[in-house]
Amino acid sequence: MKDKALKIIAAVLAATTVVSVAAFFLTKDKDFLGKPSEKDAIIYSYDNSELTKAVSVKGTNGEVYLPTDFENVYFTADLQNKVSFFEYANGAFTASALPVKQVEANLSATYETIPITVNYIEKDGKVFGIGIFTSDMDSSVDVYSYAFVKLTNKPAGYGTGHLLLADFEKENFYSTEKIYSEIYNFDISSGKSSTYVSNNTRLIDKNGTFRNDWTMLTDEFIANLGNAKYFFSSRYYTAAEKGTRADIMVLSDAYRPEIVAEDILGIWLVNDANGMHYLRKTEKGFNNVINQNKTEKVLTEFEGDYFADYVQDGKWLINKKSLVVTDLMTGATKTLKNVDITAFDTVTVSPDGNKFVFSAKGIRNDNSAIVQQLVFCTADGSKEPVTYAEPLLFAESSDFIWLDNNNVMFARATVADGSKVASVVYAY
């Protein structure tokens, strides 16, 4: 995408490099933040970096591909609301043959009306659509400078029809883990939308908009909701605790929606025939619990700080110190070997649950270069772990996406100064 949308990622990358990247040194006898010794200092070069050699660039024209709700179908988008759809097969992205349709929507948010054109496709009786709004499109919208909306089918518990989900955090533009803060019932034939939840007593945040933790949904939450009609809310906690503490509520227009689980840890939930699966904080750490008919059963107990000592991807929870991987749905465990992930921030797990990619955000080293880290490893030991510690490994405003069990895609700089970014694929 040759447009200003890339600046969201490119600005981050450019800020995490220095004028002279060649001034960065790697060392063999100290950790990657240590001072280089004359004996084994290695001058960094983007073109000669090991990761540059290892990845294949898929966004040859600057595309950053993101997943749709349809298997092997992806989309690109920019801040002018140009949305395109692609299919992935045999290691390549090609333009999707699915017809792209549009519907005009007007969303009510903080007593304003936000006009958005939603671009969508249909497959097997389901829809998926994306719409982008910026203040450049309509200057009459005062308090919202940006909105990202997703069009999707309602989950079973919500009934029939469609939802529009809205996120107003511009820094999440390329994130696959958005927390949508507005939920709209949407008529795709007329473009009319209405909110589900009462905004009575809803507070205004420092930006002059409704507090964005009143109603919350994620793509993972919707996919694992089953026949329930729930949503997350952090309205009874501080604004800073969004995403870290939440109640699970029944979706309705009641003044005080019914709470079915109070003060859970994080915003992970799976609802199935056994009940609601979520995490709950304890004095020594936290528990993995199953809630059936408002009775909690502890499946697994954990010690330590969830946010400091663990990383999570869906049902997979990894202790960064012990390297124990826990399947939160069953309590089964396995242990990683020969890796050090204590300083890492995120993990993304392959569909089969055997391969892991860990990422650590950039930290400035003694040579004033911003160094990131990546580790690729397996749980069964079938492949040796691969570690990278360099500048410009990945765009921190994007995510890692497993295309299959062997190939993971992420956004990365395609030039040494970090000014251009595209999707690349690493085979492991």
Overall description:
- The protein has 428 residues and is mostly beta strands.
- It has helices at 7-15, 50-54, 219-223, 306-309; strands at 25-26, 42-43, 56-57, 66-67, 73-77, 83-89, 92-95, 101-109, 112-123, 126-134, 146-153, 162-167, 182-186, 193-195, 230-233, 245-250, 259-272, 275-281, 285-292, 295-303, 310-313, 316-319, 324-327, 333-335, 346-349, 355-364, 370-378, 386-390, 401-402, 407-413, 421-427.
- The strands form seven sheets. It has a seven-stranded antiparallel sheet, with no helix packed on it.
- Strand 16 and strand 17 form a beta hairpin.
- The longest helix has 9 residues, at 7-15.
- It is globular, with a radius of gyration of 22 Å.
- The model is unreliable at 15-23 and 27-37 (pLDDT under 50).
Describe the protein's topology.
Blueprint: H1 7-15, E1 25-26, E2 42-43, H2 50-54, E3 56-57, E4 66-67, E5 73-77, E6 83-89, E7 92-95, E8 101-109, E9 112-123, E10 126-134, E11 146-153, E12 162-167, E13 182-186, E14 193-195, H3 219-223, E15 230-233, E16 245-250, E17 259-272, E18 275-281, E19 285-292, E20 295-303, H4 306-309, E21 310-313, E22 316-319, E23 324-327, E24 333-335, E25 346-349, E26 355-364, E27 370-378, E28 386-390, E29 401-402, E30 407-413, E31 421-427
Antiparallel strand pairs: 1-2, 3-31, 4-5, 5-6, 6-7, 8-9, 9-10, 10-11, 11-12, 12-13, 13-14, 15-16, 16-17, 17-18, 18-19, 19-20, 21-22, 22-23, 23-24, 25-26, 26-27, 27-28, 29-30, 30-31
